[in-house]
Amino acid sequence: MSTSDLSQSKQNIVVVGNGMVGHHFVEQLSQFDGYNITVLSAESRLAYDRVHLSEYFSGKTADDLALTTPENYQQLGVNFELDAKVTQIDKAAKTVTTESGDTFSYDKLVLATGSYAFVPPIPGKDREHCLVYRTIDDLDAIQASANTGKVGVVVGGGLLGLEAANALKELGLDTHVVEFAPQLMGVQLDQAGGLLLKNKIESLGVTVHTEKATNVIVDGDDCVHKMEFADGSHLETDLILFSAGIRPYDNLAREFDLTLGERGGIVVNNQCQTSDDDIYAIGECALWNNFIYGLVAPGYSMAKVAASHIIGGEDKFTGADMSTKLKLMGVEVGSIGDAHAKTAGAQCYTYQNDRDNVYKKMVVSQDGKTLLGAVLVGDTSEYDALLQYALNGIELPENPDALILPSSGEKPTLGVDSLPDTATICSCLNVTKGDIIAAVDAGATDVGTIKSDTKATTGCGGCAALLKTVADNEFAKRGLEVKKDICSHFVYSRTELFHIVKAEKIKTFDELVSKHGKGMGCEICKPAVASILASVYNDYILEDDHLHLQDTNDTYLGNMQKDGTYSVVPRMPGGEVTPDKLIVIGEVAKEYNLYTKVTGGQRIDLFGARVEQLPAIWKRLIDAGMETGHAYGKSLRTVKSCVGSTWCRYGVQDSMSMAIFLEERYKGLRSPHKIKFAVSGCTRECAEAQSKDIGVIATENGWNLYVSGNGGMKPRHGDLFATDLDDATLIKYIDRYLMFYVRTADRLQRTSVWLENLEGGLEYMQKVVKDDHLGINDELENQMDAVVATYQCEWKTTVDSPEKLKRFRQFVNSDKQDVNIQFVDEREQIRPATLTEKAEQGLLIDTVNITEVEPA
Amino acid sequence: MMTELNSTSSTSSTSSKSSNWQTLCQKDDLVKYSGVCALLNDEQQVAIFLIDDDNALTISNWDPAGKANVLYRGLIGDDNGEVFVASPLYKERFSLTSGRCLDDDSLSVTTYQTRIEQGQVQVRV
Ligand SMILES: Cc1cc2nc3c(=O)[nH]c(=O)nc-3n(C[C@H](O)[C@H](O)[C@H](O)COP(=O)(O)OP(=O)(O)OC[C@H]3O[C@@H](n4cnc5c(N)ncnc54)[C@H](O)[C@@H]3O)c2cc1C
Ligand code: HEM
Ligand code: SF4
Ligand code: SF4
């Protein structure tokens, strides 16, 4: 080769195919001078994000999915041709020719032709409405077809097939999956995992047929097609989607004599070169070590290796990990390494919980020391830790099964310190722990900087939590303080701001930001300060000075739902309600056609109220003696209770009266996050008080107080704080505990997390509350008394104020309604129309607004 | 309902060539540091924010992330001086001056030139 005298003239690099991998290659190589890159794409658009293709149905446009733009390629100096399918390679002359006859000469040729969906040779497969799921054009065809049909079938129950099934379901079709094998996701899951997944998916309304081989597709009686199966049964459907695997686009290699694998795929070496040194193959068309990788991350690695080899670098492709974690129709599924325990001597631990539909399996080596693989269905919270064990060969703890058992006491945690520097943290972009350390060494002092320096988390985003843990650990090691500033407008934490507000008697946000902060504030600090001001002064939250600080839920005194309507929740202390009030609620719901549901907090939610209807609705409720339930606020929600000794044959105290008293006392208390209480009338604990921020359980002698329990995302059992309290002491303790929380917690920190992070924890709080360790108990109680004394029903104040009611107009200059709010009936009540349903009614506001855009 | 919307929308784009100021409401209708919603040409929803005592900024009311007409009910604030509204649904922030989404490059909203003349709030159409 005479590369030396070529140095002035640029090398011609021709890339065939502009899928995700071809594009990644272009991005890599265009960073270097000396190359004239030409991209030839068979599709009519430049590269787009195939991994997130399904989001096309949930509203993303082709532009949203695009990975690049013509302008961007021009800027990079990359030539490209669209609709330019390459049909010939002349290896001797080093040229390629497209379908339309254009010829391009190359010094290096890169084949990134990807793959196509395999359609099994079933008679009838080419009928109309038989489609595949691979390109944006395919999705357009599916959408069009779904509009005319009612039933859809996906042939193939693998990862992609299930994703496609979800899309059909979202498009409103009665959806079926037909799988030839006895189980779903046979590649990633074992039999038990596949069975559980099947149950879960069926409970979501998709019918799964396993062990069905389709013989022929013919005209249907009720639907477009009838699929006849080998076992004599049949299924009628309007749309068939084939998702029976992928096949590499290796036709060019086949016709022009590059070495292929036995079952297809262009054979490449560790540098991604084909049998012709000047031709590379990368991505899903390439066969490395007799294997085709059907995922994007290995493709990206190949793109990097090929680019590196062209510029004279030494990167090598050495295989890739195929572990996956994903959510299929809301069901979490994870598969790591040797999921089928094929390694000799491998041993398995399984955990199966049929009630919660969770299945977990670990495959460990014969000596029990290393993790070879895992299957997780229904709960993938251990995926990250398990993957690190498997990838880095970290020695397993003595009882490895503790890693997948529900936490009963101590769960061995994988300290990030035990990860080697080579551990991959972000597998999409291949960022290692070492890369993160390097970024910190280079001066990064927050997670944001690390993300932009290393690009970690910018792929699927699944590694965000792990990245933060690793980063925080590195910061801590270097003595860097983990920044607690609430946002860029204040260099103070919430607790510090609370002290400033109290000490300087600051009454408005404007005063606080002008004295102690900068700028206008933002969506983080404004509601936090509003909450602090409310805890300290308890003013009406829609005062002019406070109005602009509130989240929409507080501004409109209702919870905003996904379509912009609000819910209406009157308070029902202890879940007690008179028949007369219940009738009024029913009448209001009927008159305004509101969706009605009993909540988890023992009260009634009315959904679907338009902003302009709220005042009239609330006036009716208030006139009937009800008041706001603060369901919208970071404040006390409900005090759940059982009927206790009054009715229950086991009850030992009057839990109803206590619950009502507590709810009346603390209603309206603004706090860093929502607060929930419960009171049970005996140790049978029917009100589930131990899962609440404040839990009270009756004993023969009084009340036991539990604190900082939590349901929700991260359940926590409450801690027993004090026993056998009389009524007065119970109230005192709760006053002090809550007010101390209100003063010292971070923004949006529930009592559970707050207590866990508090230095000294439960014992410290017991000293503060019971022994007055800090000498502030009088102050805490006085402050609570002040809040209680200044309570007002915000809705009553609002409906009495014509000025405030002006806010509850949809349009300041019209009485029209928001046409995008549309309901359909379901189970005799309303529900919001889905995007598809709106589209069917010709109502896609999106396009109306977008087409009006004039370039700014 | 929709057919009506579409037909009027085409008239509006022809009239936009003349580039007039259209009065949407009175300054008293606005709320300081907060938003209200108005109809432009009696059909397009716009969100108008009074960002200090005298200045208002206007964007389209449609939240392209949450897919609902709610932006006027968001909180406003600034990010290094760039004034934005945070969507009340999923908190994406949209610049009130450029329409750009600060959290997702692929999203944006329309902005409208806005002025307050003798107590009347006007946008350029
Ligand atoms: C719905 C869906 C979901 C997915 N989800 C995931 C996921 O969650 N995680 C993951 O890792 N992977 C996922 N994948 C797989 C991932 O998208 C692929 O691994 C990746 O796109 C492969 O990139 P590629 O560039 O090799 O091939 P492609 O993206 O297929 O690109 C090849 C391009 O080359 C063009 N081409 C072919 N022949 C020629 C020719 N002769 N001349 C010119 N152009 C040609 C093709 O038209 C195509 O545009 C998913 C795939 C699909 C379809
Ligand atoms: C004679 C015995 C009991 C009767 C008749 C009874 C009856 C009921 C009824 C009618 C409900 C309401 C169901 C609904 O919401 O539709 C209920 C809920 C409940 N019961 Fe019982 N129950 C009894 C004993 C218990 C015991 C001993 C416990 C606890 C160990 C318990 C725990 C619960 C719980 C947790 C709920 C759910 C509360 C909620 O909706 O949040 N029950 N019970
Ligand atoms: S907690 Fe005790 S008192 Fe209350 S309902 Fe259950 S059994 Fe009865
Ligand atoms: S769990 Fe809570 S946040 Fe999630 S869908 Fe239900 S109501 Fe909404």
Descriptive account of the structure:
The complex is a heterodimer of chains A (856) and B (125). By secondary structure, chain A is of the alpha/beta class. Chain A has six domains: 11-115 and 248-310, FAD/NAD(P)-binding domain; 119-244, FAD/NAD(P)-binding domain (3-Layer(bba) Sandwich); 321-413, Enolase-like, domain 1 (2-Layer Sandwich), CATH 3.30.390; 415-477, Orthogonal Bundle (Arc Repressor Mutant, subunit A), CATH 1.10.10; 494-550, no CATH class; 634-792, Sulfite Reductase Hemoprotein, domain 1 (2-Layer Sandwich). Chain A has 28 helices and 38 strands. In chain A, the strands form eleven sheets. In chain A, strands 3-2-1-7-19 form a five-stranded parallel sheet, covered by helices on one side. In chain A, strands 9-16-10-11-12 form a five-stranded parallel sheet. In chain A, helix 10 crosses helix 11 (447-454). Mean pLDDT of chain A is 89; it is low at 1-7 and 845-856. Chain B is mainly beta. Chain B has one domain (3-124): Rieske Iron-sulfur Protein (3-layer Sandwich), CATH 2.102.10. Chain B has one helix at residues 2-15, and strands at 21-26, 35-40, 44-50, 56-60, 62-63, 68-69, 75-79, 82-86, 93-95, 111-112, 114-117, 120-124. In chain B, strands 2-3-4-10 form a four-stranded antiparallel sheet, with no helix packed on it. Chain B has a three-stranded antiparallel sheet with strand order 1-12-11, with no helix packed on it. The longest helix of chain B has 14 residues, at 2-15. The radius of gyration of chain B is 14 Å and the shape is globular. The two termini of chain B are 23 Å apart. The site of one iron/sulfur cluster has 13 residues of chain A, from loops.
